[in-house]
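Subject: Protein record for review, amino acid sequence with backbone structure tokens
Concerning: The relation between a protein's sequence and the shape of its backbone.
How to read it: Take the token row as a discrete description of the fold.
Enclosed: The protein record, placed directly beneath this head.
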Amino acid sequence: MAWLWLAIAIVFEVIATSALRATAGFTRLLPSLLVVLGYGGAFFFLSRTLDSIPVGIAYAVWSGAGIVLISVIAWAMFGQTLDRPALLGMGLIVAGVLTINLFSTSSAH
């Protein structure tokens, strides 16, 4: 169940971060509420994972997946360009998360 909580935390974080631009410096109410509720949900569900997944592993997966997903959303929705070094870096992040999950005994609690 902890991995499901972590996936939900990642979704909340990605939604909140994606909405940050629309807040216009927290001067627009609805996008600002989405950001606050999104981050609140992200940290709530992240905290639920920590009974079963070590904090370092949970945070590595959470932040790594968030970086990649936010970059893809920024590319698709906001026209952010992703050059080769950016794509290489994201590939390394994905490789790191996969390595942790597939080979590390640290994620076994």
